[in-house]
Design goal:
The chain has about 250 residues and is α/β, with parallel strands linked by helices. The protein has helices at about 25-35, 75-80, 100-110, 125-140, 155-165, 180-185, 200-210, 220-230, 240-245, and strands spanning about 10-15, 40-45, 55, 115-120, 145-150, 170-175, 190-195, 215, 235-240. Helix 7 links the parallel strand 7 and strand 8. It is globular. The structure holds SN-glycerol-3-phosphate and magnesium ion.
């Protein structure tokens, strides 16, 4: 039951924006993906202490900002004041952590296709999913194609599905847990997003036989991408999507 609403023909998705060229999960990384002519971007959404959905990967602020502590224990007004660019390069100093709403608006403006990864901090699986769906309902036209919502959290995906029957969902996996197939089917996911290291030709065929897209993360090596595509993988997430695009596709 592969959804006709997704166009994955570009076969490469900019991971956390074009994150080799600009600080991950920032508007600069989104802009860079656009400039590289990559139509799809992936990014991670987490809640602040006061439940504002923001774009960040880690549960803590240290790696990608000049702040400290846990995202889930920091209010949005304090997170908004952080520098999320200097760690990457001084040229990006002053870049901040966008809210999910800001990020979506900019993606829509640039006509980008989006993969929203629900990235709940510990214990916030349902709340994060609810905030993601509510923000999508407010800021992303339902008629707009190419919206894919994914998560490693089955609890988050279940909450998202309960709120919106028509969402295109992707189940993220970094290992094959016992009932992954059941989760994929029960949640009516259109796609399985797997760590490329756990994929084999046989597994890809098994997922394709279920009528689901297969996406693989994070693939920066063109040789690796070539092999995955030869197995039938539909698209790869890459920090260097331009390299994959020019050398493989
Ligand atoms: O969505 C693909 C990939 O982003 C999943 O892993 O840890 O980079 O969010 P991570
Ligand atoms: Mg991610």
């Amino acid at each position: 039951m592969t959804s006709p609403r997704l166009d994955l023909s570009s076969r490469v998705i900019a991971h956390r924006g074009a994150s080799h060229y600009a600080p991950e999960n920032t508007l600069a990384a989104l802009q860079k993906a656009y400039e590289l002519h990559i139509p799809w971007i992936e990014f991670d959404v987490m809640l602040t202490e006061d439940n504002v959905p923001i774009i960040i990967h880690d549960e803590t602020l240290e790696r990608t900002t000049d702040g400290h502590g846990e995202v889930a224990k920091t209010a949005y007004k304090d997170i908004a004041a952080l520098d999320a660019g200097s760690w990457f390069d001084r040229a990006f100093s002053g870049e901040n952590i966008p809210t999910f709403a800001e990020f979506l608006k900019q993606a829509a403006e640039l006509n980008l296709s989006v993969n929203v990864e629900i990235k709940p901090s510990e214990g916030k699986d349902q709340e994060t999913a609810m905030a993601v769906v509510q923000t999508l309902q407010a800021h992303w036209l339902t008629a707009r194609p190419n919206l894919l919502v994914s998560s490693f959290s089955v609890v988050s995906l279940t909450a998202a599905r309960a709120l919106d029957k028509s969402l295109c969902l992707g189940l993220l996996l970094d290992h094959w847990f016992g009932d992954w197939q059941e989760s994929l089917l029960q949640l009516d996911c259109v796609a399985l997003h797997a760590n490329w290291r756990i994929l084999t030709k046989r597994k890809v065929a098994q997922i394709k036989d279920l009528g689901r897209y297969v996406l693989a993360y994070t693939v920066d090596n063109p040789e690796q991408a070539r092999e995955l595509f030869s197995w039938g993988v539909d698209a790869v997430f890459s920090n260097v999507p331009d390299v994959i695009l020019s050398s493989v596709l």
